[in-house]
Each structure stands twice: as C-alpha cells, then as structure tokens.
What we know:
InterPro entries: NAD(P)-bd_dom_sf (IPR036291), SDR (IPR050259), SDR_fam (IPR002347). The chain is α/β, with parallel strands linked by helices.
Amino acid sequence: MNLNLNNKYALVCGSTAGIGKATAMSLATEGATITLIARNEDKLKAVLAELPQQRNHDYIVADFSNPEELKTKVSDYISKNHGFHILVNNTGGPKGGPVFSAGLDEFESAFTQHLKCNHVLAQTVVPFMKEASYGRIINIISTSVKQPLDGLGVSNTIRGAVASWSKTLANELGQFGITVNNVLPGATGTERLTEIIKNKSAKTGNTEEEAANAMKNAVPAKRFAKPEELAYAVTFLASECASYINGINLPVDGGRTKSL
Ligand SMILES: NC(=O)c1ccc[n+]([C@@H]2O[C@H](COP(=O)([O-])OP(=O)(O)OC[C@H]3O[C@@H](n4cnc5c(N)ncnc54)[C@H](OP(=O)(O)O)[C@@H]3O)[C@@H](O)[C@H]2O)c1
C-alpha cells in the first residue's frame, strides 16, 4: 500500500496540539502540503517549523467561535494561494458536565464550533475538490457518536449532530470523488484528556492517577492512545487507498466502545 500524498494540499484544523498536530505531521510525512489552523499564532509558527521543510507549508490564524470570519479567512486564502484536496475538521472539545444542568449558551457555542465551522469549511473547500475530482473531508469527533460518555452532556449531544451532518454530506458528495468520514478518538493522550482527568478527579475525590487508571481499565487495550495512532487513521482515510470508504464512523479507541 502506498499512501503517497504528494501534490495534495491539506487544511488541518486545530493543529497546534494533540490529534490535529499529529495529523498535520503524519500527512506531511506522506507528502502533503499543509495549511494549519488554530488561534495561537506563536504555536502555529512553532508547529510550522517542525513540519518537513521541503514544501510550502503555511498557516491561518482563526477562531472556531466565529464561523463567518473563518469562512472569509479561508476563502481569501484559497483565492490568493490554492484550494485543498483534504480537509481535517477538528477543534477543541466542549466543556464537560451533566447535560441536565447545561446552559443554552453551552449548546450554542458547541454547535457553532463543531457544526457550523465544519459546514462553512466544507462549503469553502468543496468547489476545488470537485474540480480536482479528489476530496477527503475527515471530521475528528468522538466515540460518543456511538455511545454517550458520562459527564460530557453537551459534547455527546453535538457530536451526534456532526455525525449526522457528515453522513448526509457523504451521500451528496460521493459522486464527485469526495469522501466524508469521521474518526472517533477514544481516550487519547492530549491536553484535552488531561483536562478530563482533572475534572473526574475533582468530581470523585480520587487522585488524578486513580482517575486515569480507572479510564485505562475501561479500555481492552488498558492504555490511552497516542495522538499519532489517530493521525495514522486520518492519513489512511485521506489517501487514494481509502477511495471506496465513505460515510463511516471509525472508532480509534483501543476497543473501548461497547457497540458493534
Ligand atoms: N483527547 C481525547 O481523549 C479525545 C477523546 C475524544 C474526542 N476528542 C476530541 O478530538 C478533538 C481534538 O482533541 P485533542 O485532544 O487533540 O484536543 P487538544 O489537544 O485540546 O487540541 C485542540 C486544538 O484545537 C485548537 N483549538 C481549540 N479551540 C479552538 C478554537 N476555538 N478555534 C480554533 N482552534 C481551536 C487548539 O489550538 P489553539 O488553542 O491555538 O486554538 C489545538 O490546536 C476535540 O474535539 C476533542 O474533544 C478527544
């Protein structure tokens, strides 16, 4: 199998840390030219410097709390530079907590960051993908698409909406050589996971180590994922090798999800 992503342009969101950063590295290693997106310009510059330097990687500073501005920035970028064959939709996860006590503003901001931003980005990149007869839209969501996770009420709710949006888009765009798939991380060693462990420890009175061990024990693999393990799945889905895989939810969770 040859994943060869030479001459492919990839827009990788939330790519200064965690799964997004690992994905940018992995796609670049396979030959893609990367445009990073996140809010913190210093971190973007630092990741840019880590990417293989033989191609013109670049970045856009944008905040997923403002979809209109995001759309304008990415449209301007495309008109001045190039379109994208690969879009990785990814951003920070919504705040934790039970669904019953969640405020309307929490649902609204999670819907904006996760659904509206994915949508405007897809609308912005798809015309070039159609022309190229090659498109890969890969959404980083969560295993909560298949099995809601305790203490992540708003996240569980919005993730379902994103998965449904994605499946519908896959049905509409398949005829143009564009696939739309979701990668569902289980517990993955990133800043987001550190935050989740801290919340669990505060809620239960267990130490952070005890909270982390309880989470690991719930996984058949008995460990957390490395961000690279997610990135490899995304890289495969981005390649020509995955051309007949469309509209799926791929858990990368060490077997934690109980559903078939
Ligand atoms: N890690 C896990 O165990 C796990 C499990 C299931 C699902 N997930 C989901 O997978 C996704 C990625 O998780 P991760 O663990 O890799 O997260 P992470 O380590 O917290 O990284 C988040 C990335 O998104 C960027 N970002 C955050 N808020 C943003 C905003 N408003 N606008 C633009 N960029 C923003 C951050 O950069 P800036 O701060 O510079 O903007 C950073 O690059 C999240 O949706 C998360 O909930 C993670």
